[in-house]
Design goal:
The protein is of the alpha/beta class and about 220 residues long. It is built from eight helices and eight strands; from the N terminus they run βαβαβαβαββαβαβαα.
């Protein structure tokens, strides 16, 4: 079943609890939390203190995406702050296998992320140990960017590997997702679809979630 994950990076931080409540009423079960350090990506966002406050405001699953250098140093901090799953970038981890093992030892799902310029084949060796793979369909660091179509081929390759290897990791996509392109994303194989401005940038975020979910399910129902 496809999950729409609203990204709080696009929410109004002055009324974050209210914005979360509006998407929760639409049946959202997971929120996407982008963490940026100003080094790995050219922007700075929230850290463990904000995540801790967010944890107090909702019981939803907080899928925490670490767009930071040397993530190993901060895994414990984000777990303690309330992260329900953690994903790290292939490009940021010198010893990716060890980093993923460290996350799983906390008893939470571990994900690996690739940027648009990173070939999906670089993930072959770690696929058996990940719970999900996040394909970036924009260059990370800013919201509101245009979707990069090449991400669809990566989703399709991951679907093929998952089937061939008998694995059960989830396939996630983040960046430039809208009501206009979500059908193609769903058909390519995404299980978790992150949406920022196309949800929280709308007058009715809950309604936007329902519309995107319906479009995704309709796309799958007519797939041949």
């Amino acid at each position: 079943m496809i999950q729409i994950q609203p990204s709080i990076l696009s929410a109004d931080f002055a009324r974050l609890a209210f914005d979360i409540e509006r998407v929760e009423t639409a049946g959202v079960s997971m929120l996407h939390v982008d963490v940026m350090d100003g080094h790995f990506v050219p922007n700075i966002s929230l850290g463990p203190p904000v995540l801790r406050s967010l944890r107090k405001a909702t019981r939803l699953h907080l899928d925490t995406h670490l767009m930071i250098e040397d993530p190993d140093r901060y895994l414990q901090d984000f777990v303690d702050a309330g992260a329900d799953s953690l994903s790290v970038h292939w490009e940021a981890c010198r010893h990716l296998h060890r980093t993923l093992e460290s996350i799983r030892k906390f008893g939470i799902p571990a994900g690996v992320v690739i940027n648009p310029a990173t070939p999906v084949r670089h993930l072959e060796e770690v696929l058996p140990m990940v719970d999900y793979v996040l394909v970036m369909s924009v260059n990370p660091g800013f919201g509101g960017q245009r979707f990069i179509p090449g991400a669809l081929a990566k989703l399709e390759q991951l679907v093929a590997w998952r089937r061939e290897l008998g694995l059960d990791f989830k396939i996630q996509i983040d960046g430039g997702i809208s009501a206009e392109n979500i059908a193609g994303v769903a058909r390519a194989g995404a299980d978790w679809i992150v949406a920022g401005s196309s949800v929280f940038g709308q007058k009715d975020p809950g309604g936007a979630v329902l519309d995107m979910r319906q479009r995704a399910h309709e796309a799958l129902s007519v797939r041949v």
